[in-house]
Specification:
Blueprint (H helix, E strand, L loop, with lengths): L6 E5 L4 E5 L6 H4 L6 E6 L3 E3 L4 E6 L5 E6 L4 E5 L12 E3 L6 E2 L4 E5 L1 H7 L5 E6 L3 E5 L4 E3 L4 E7 L13 E7 L8 H11 L6 E5 L2 E4 L3 H7 L6 E7 L3 H13 L23 E4 L2 E9 L13 H19 L4 H14 L2 H12 L4 H19 L2 H4 L1 H17 L13 E5 L4 H6 L5 E6 L7 H9 L3 E3 L13 E5 L4 E3 L4 H24 L13 E6 L2 H10 L4 E5 L13 H15 L4 E4 L27 H6 L1 H14 L5 E5 L5 H18 L7 E5 L2 H5 L1 H5 L4 E4 L1 H9 L17 H16 L3 E4 L10 H6 L4 E4 L4 H8 L4 H12 L4 H12 L1
Parallel strand pairs: 20-21, 21-22, 22-23, 26-27, 26-33, 27-28, 28-29, 29-30, 30-31, 31-32, 32-33
Antiparallel strand pairs: 1-14, 2-3, 2-13, 3-11, 4-10, 5-6, 5-9, 6-7, 7-11, 8-10, 12-14, 15-18, 16-17, 16-18, 19-23, 20-24, 24-25
């Protein structure tokens, strides 16, 4: 670093209130995606040089400037938020790229009032961009003038870049269609995306090339909407890194056409609430507003903070290990995040730079969350809420505070929140909780699954207006009708109260008859089974009146561990569940991991779309050793007359035949000569269209409506931005189910449904009319489901199903069924 200063003192570039970067209401800045920094809420319209520097870039719209300081550090000053949309109005740049400036020189003048009227906020982030430097902040939360000292930037030893510039190369030309080109936020998303790759990547515009990982460099390119750029990678994963970046750019760089808005929380659409758990409730509003706890910026030394982080991780892991049933499955996903090596590494780097363990962990999870959002993959984006949850749990362990700070609920509370984390739900007094409504979220988020399992009505993606409903106001939450009435009249309250009382009495009657076999009014036998994920679930299902298990998810045994469970461990678990069920049938689904459920002992390359990748039976066939052990454990643990085995993600007969050969070999080795049914899950449109062919060999067919629906409608079931479009009663999905029913009947097989649609009593007459004879639901839904099925007549069900397949929309189908069941 000869000829270059090691440390540079920064003066305030604006007069105003000096604040932490975390206070900026934009996650790209607040969560450190652009880098470390501070912010100033200005009281005057002048941006001055905070130190001697060279001007690197000035935004064409005049709202930002970047500098190279005397020690080589690059600094970005971004006046206000969403000021790029002003198109330069109110800004008067006083410098140009290449100018040398001295401390205090005027860089940008701006009209404080004009910019304030058009911007989201005036608060101005000042960010240290790039690596190799440490930012040390002076005391914050004070009024400063441009001459006041605010920070110091110190150069570290040079860092040798990872990656290999030799070897493969790959190049693509792509058009940038993001509405404002590559400005600060898209540049941060590009840098975040490339953190998962090692190859050096450059972006070239009009002959000028910059490092794609340098946000300041990207800003200097001045890429605008409609520009064509070259993306060039060199090294071992050049192709993957370039193609991933092309996909991000073609997806719009996370920018919306109408405005330059970030996605700090799950997308909140404007189309109205979505049902996550059915039901009807009256109650008093409790608004859940939980702010992140403050964490110390600086640590007490690397050794102390590393040890504190390790202790907190162990404590949270132990707490998560203590769960049971569905909560344990969700805890398993959180333990996977806790053990993520990249999160730990990112936190470790922050600790090594002098930060506290709590700050380091928050910084690492914030970076990971933004990187997930930057992929544009809706399935991965569902992980963000889990990241936030595990962040809060670990910080609570570090600081000795309460992770899931939730209010004490009065009786009959309707809880309203921006979003709700699983740990927060589990901390609530559910005896006092009448219903939940969230502004964001998706209908298959972890908390939605918990609410449905607990029988608590829940709406998600209701929009931000619900956050303004007054605390204590009496409201009606109609999750069945996907609406919340914030100002019900006396007559409406009386009418709904009567409906709730009638429903309560109906539930009592349903439970009293839940243990009898289920037959339709005309005597047709329909089996009502339960979906299970543990032995505790099996006990709950038996208590609820389940006639068997239609889906045992075995992946809970394989997640959150360093190596796969051996045969003995699997056999013990399967045997315990079979014993709990008594003589009731047990359908065991073979391992369904991969995609968004990776495990450390099965290293897999990063997949651009995990939902369409190496998952389910595909992974099992790629690792036949795992499949053979699992089949052997099932055969030894579950009596043959009780045992049925089911394969996930089947696409055609080749998948089925390969596993059938393995099963026959294991049966022969164990001396089992009685039939053990082997069936398939119908989760893809391909499998549904080939149902008659599959039924010729498979012993039974069971439809996973969650995946079948998302693949059919091309809508991710965990993405709130499009979740209103997903409805398994869509006529396109119903026509595929009809193909399954016909294929099964043609070959004398039975067809069931084990997806979410099976738990919806409204769907029962249509499914039965389409040829379904087994419904596997959540334990909480079994009593009502049986009661509804007992009122049905096969002729009317067939007629209704045919009319539903000919309907124009899912909404029309639901209206049709409600008229029949009313």
């Amino acid at each position: 670093m000869s000829g270059m200063m090691a440390s540079v003192t920064l003066r305030a570039p604006l007069a105003g209130w000096l604040a932490p970067i975390e206070s900026v209401p934009d996650p790209v800045f607040a969560e450190g995606m652009m880098g470390e920094g501070f912010a100033i809420d200005p009281i005057a319209g002048e941006v001055r040089a905070p130190a001697d520097a060279t001007v690197l870039t000035v935004a064409p719209t005049g709202h930002s400037v970047s500098l190279r300081l005397a020690n080589g550090a690059e600094l970005l000053i971004h006046v206000g938020l969403e000021t790029v949309t002003l198109g330069g109005k109110g800004f008067t740049p006083q410098v140009k790229p290449g100018d040398a400036v001295a401390t205090g020189d005027l860089l940008i003048g701006f009209d404080l009032d004009a910019v304030a009227q058009g911007a989201k906020a005036l608060i101005t982030p000042v960010v240290l961009a790039g690596e190799g430097y440490v930012l040390s902040l002076d005391p914050l939360d004070r009024l400063v003038g441009w001459q006041d000292g605010v920070a110091r930037i110190t150069a570290l030893a040079p860092v040798v870049a990872k990656g290999d510039s030799e070897g493969d190369s790959h190049e693509r030309v792509v058009r940038v269609d993001a509405p404002h080109g590559i400005h600060a936020r898209p540049a941060a998303r590009i840098a975040a995306l490339l953190r998962t790759f090692v190859a050096p990547v450059a972006i070239v515009r009009e002959g000028k090339s910059v490092n794609a990982r340098s946000t300041v460099g990207l800003l200097g390119l001045g890429v605008r909407c409609g520009d064509e750029i070259i993306i060039r990678g060199e090294g071992s994963d050049a192709r993957a890194s370039v193609e991933a970046l092309v996909a991000l750019i073609e997806a719009g760089l996370g920018e919306e056409a109408k405005a330059d808005h970030p996605a700090p929380a799950p997308v909140v659409p404007q189309h109205g609430p979505v049902t996550a758990a059915p039901g009807l409730a009256i109650g008093q509003v409790v608004q859940l507003r939980v702010a992140d706890v403050d964490v110390p910026l600086d640590g007490q030394g690397g050794a102390v903070e590393h040890a504190a982080l390790a202790r907190a991780m162990a404590a949270v892991d132990a707490e998560l290990s203590a769960g049971h049933g569905l909560a344990a499955e969700i805890a398993a996903a959180h333990r996977a995040l806790l053990a993520d090596p990249e999160l730990a590494e990112a936190a470790g780097h922050q600790i090594d730079a002098g930060r506290s363990a709590a700050f380091a962990w928050r910084h690492a999870t914030a970076q990971a969350a933004e990187a997930i959002r930057a992929t544009g993959d809706p399935l991965l984006m569902e992980r963000v809420a889990d990241l936030i949850d595990i962040e809060r749990q670990l910080i609570a362990a570090l600081l000795g505070s309460e992770a899931s700070a939730v209010p004490r609920l009065p009786p009959q509370s309707i809880l309203i929140a921006e979003d709700l984390l699983p740990s927060q739900f589990l901390a609530l007094d559910r005896d006092r909780l009448a219903g939940i409504c969230t502004a964001a979220g998706g209908p298959t988020s972890h908390v939605a699954i918990l609410a449905a399992s607990a029988g608590i009505p829940m709406l998600v993606a209701a929009g931000r207006d619900v956050l303004a409903i007054a605390e204590g106001r009496t409201v009606i939450l109609d999750a069945d009708g996907a609406r919340i009435d914030a100002d019900p009249g006396v007559n409406t309250l009386s009418e709904v109260s009567a409906r709730i009382a009638a429903a309560r009495e109906q539930r009592s009657r349903d439970r009293a008859q839940a243990h009898a076999d289920c037959r339709m009014a005309d005597g047709t036998r329909i089996e009502i089974f339960a979906n299970l994920g543990s032995q505790a679930d099996a006990a709950a299902a038996v208590a609820a009146g389940a006639e068997g298990c239609g889906l045992l998810r075995t992946e809970f045994l394989f997640l959150e561990r360093e190596e796969a469970p051996d045969e003995a461990e699997q056999r013990e678990i399967y045997s315990g569940i079979a014993t709990t069920l008594g003589d009731r049938p047990l359908i065991v689904r073979t391992l369904d991991i991969g995609g968004d459920k990776p495990v450390p002992y099965l290293p897999m390359a990063a997949e651009e779309n995990p939902a369409l990748g190496l998952r389910g039976v595909r992974l099992s066939l790629a690792r036949p050793d795992l499949m053979q052990v699992q089949l052997r454990a099932i055969l030894r643990a579950v009596p043959a007359d009780q045992c049925r085995i089911m394969l996930p993600m089947i696409a055609d007969l080749a998948d089925y035949r390969a596993v059938r050969a393995m099963l026959d070999a294991e049966k022969a080795a164990l001396g089992i000569d009685v039939p053990v049914p082997l069936g398939v899950m119908i989760e893809t449109p391909a499998a549904a269209m080939l149902a008659d062919m599959l039924a010729a060999e498979a012993d039974f067919l069971s439809i996973g409506t969650n995946d079948l629906t998302q693949y059919t409608l091309a809508v991710d079931r965990g993405n709130a931005a499009v979740s209103h479009r997903i409805d398994a009663l869509h006529p396109a999905v119903l026509r595929l189910i009809r193909e399954v029913g016909r294929g099964a009947q043609r070959h004398g097989r039975w067809a069931g449904v084990c997806g979410g649609l099976a738990s919806d009593p409204l769907a029962a007459p249509i499914l039965i009319g389409l040829g379904i004879t087994e419904l596997s639901a959540t334990p909480a839904a079994i009593a009502r489901l049986k009661a509804v099925v007992r009122t049905l007549d096969m002729g009317r069900c067939i007629d209704l199903a045919e009319r539903a397949c000919a309907a124009e929309s899912a909404a029309a189908v639901r209206e049709m069924v409600q008229g029949v069941l009313a």
